[in-house]
Amino acid sequence: MYKYLIVFLISMIPVVELRGAIPVGIGMGLTPWAVYVICCIGNMLPVPLIYFFARKVLIWGKDKKYIGKFFTFCIEKGEKGGKKLQKNGGKGLFIALMLFVGIPIPGTGAWTGTLAASFLDMGFKKSVIAVTLGVIIAGVIMGLASMGVFGGISALFAPKT
Q1: Global pTM?
Q2: Which residue from 127, 138, 136, 50 is spatially nearest to 96, judged by alpha carbons?
Q3: How far apart are CA 10 and CA 5, in angstroms?
């Protein structure tokens, strides 16, 4: 039970999120389906707080002595992500947000996606659904990658020596 708690907590950490938690859980020998579900829940838990409060806290703290630079960095990252989503998504902003969160590369998780959605004033319900679908997609990709499925597929197509 302790190992599942560790995986749950890792999935809540910004930047790491479930992209880091799923490989850790599978590496610990935990059941892949349980790891997937726990990581998806853990990754989504902070989303409402991020949507409603992160922008306000960041704006409040951007002028503070010790935290100002970091908070300004976070604001710029959220605004940049929002502009990128808006540019690439156009009218398909929902799909763009879902794919932004769903493709497991650094800086594109639920935290950044939700912050970007809040900067774009995308509705809460629409944002949460898009981020949830993105987290589900990223979780599937990371779960398969952690279990070596992609390595096995690539081995099928590797030249025979």
Answers
A1: 0.84
A2: 127
A3: 9
